[in-house]
Design goal:
The chain has 283 residues and is mostly beta strands. Helices cover 11% and strands 36% of the residues. It has helices spanning 33-43, 56-63, 178-188; strands at residues 12-16, 23-31, 46-47, 71-78, 83-86, 108-115, 118-125, 130-136, 158-164, 167-176, 191-192, 215-222, 227-230, 252-257, 265-270, 275-282.
């Protein structure tokens, strides 16, 4: 389990729906739809599922916590069915509280916002960063173990990959915070890149997936042990070719980059920064 300091401080406003047992939470820190879903599934149950709100009275309770600023909900375009689905798994049917729907296509997710004193649904690129609304259903609890619909959305672009020994390293162009990158890698691969088994002879191969822009790897400062460790929990050793390390402290994570003909080098970067990242899989 990662140290609590890695979780970003989020300002939430909670409200209880009288019509059912769900509690809804608005989180005002902007995130992509996928990042918002991961956060909601880890801390609550999921992104807001409004399917059971089949009349204007019930939806107005949620509306009282919206604004002209669009907020993500759990509705997304599912390429498996060429239509809309809820991230919670609910089957989507046209809500009775709205007569108009935006046009959805691959890569678009739904938002909820206020329009002329009424709740309205919007559509935006899932990679945009917006506030979001989660819900907690005590009967379900957290959904971190549930298979998410992430793979059914527009796939994050992969820049390159390289195989070193029995491991494959993949660079993802999409920029995320270190924690969000960690969640993405664990959902799709094994973890953020663990370089403990990359030898001095192998390090040149990494240049195929790194450049002069820091890319997150799985190394971070663990406040419990006051030292660096790998998020994969496979050890804390640093390869000899990476021994020239900067000073790390609380709130700093490792970025890997290279410059010109220099070998790969680790840099200390604030964990909330948005950076590309490197995942790995294999033994």
């Amino acid at each position: 389990m990662l140290s609590a300091w890695l979780l970003l401080s989020l300002c939430t406003i909670a409200f209880q729906l009288v019509s059912n047992s769900k509690t809804f939470y608005r989180v005002d820190e902007p995130r992509t739809w996928k990042e918002a879903m991961w956060y909601c599934q880890e801390h609550y149950t999921d992104l807001a599922d409004l399917q059971s709100m089949n009349n204007l009275v019930s939806i107005m309770v949620v509306y009282s916590y919206t604004s002209s600023i669009h907020a993500w909900i759990g509705l997304f375009y599912d390429v498996r069915i060429s239509g809309l689905s809820w991230s919670s798994g609910s089957i989507f049917t046209m809500p009775t509280w709205t007569t108009t729907m935006p046009v959805f296509r691959d890569g678009l997710c739904a938002t909820l916002y206020s329009w002329y004193s009424l709740p309205a649904l919007g559509a935006a690129s899932c990679t945009n960063q917006k506030p979001f609304i989660c819900y907690l259903d005590p009967a379900i609890g957290h959904r971190t173990s549930v298979v998410s619909p992430v793979k059914d959305l527009t796939t994050l672009p992969e820049e390159a990959e390289v195989k070193i020994g029995g491991q494959t390293f993949i660079r993802i162009k999409q920029t995320m915070t270190w924690l969000s990158a960690l969640n993405y890698c664990r959902n799709h691969y094994t973890d953020l890149a663990d370089l403990q088994r990359v030898t001095n002879e192998d390090k040149e191969a990494l240049k195929f997936i790194i450049n002069d822009d820091d890319a997150w790897i799985g190394l971070y400062f663990n406040v419990k042990i006051k030292n660096l460790t790998w998020s994969s929990d496979q050890g804390s050793s640093i390869p000899e070719w990476l021994q020239d390390l900067p000073i790390f402290g609380q709130g700093l994570c490792a970025g890997l980059r290279t410059f010109a003909n220099h070998p790969p080098q680790i840099y200390a970067v604030l964990c909330p920064k948005l950076k590309p990242f490197i995942c790995f899989y294999g033994m």
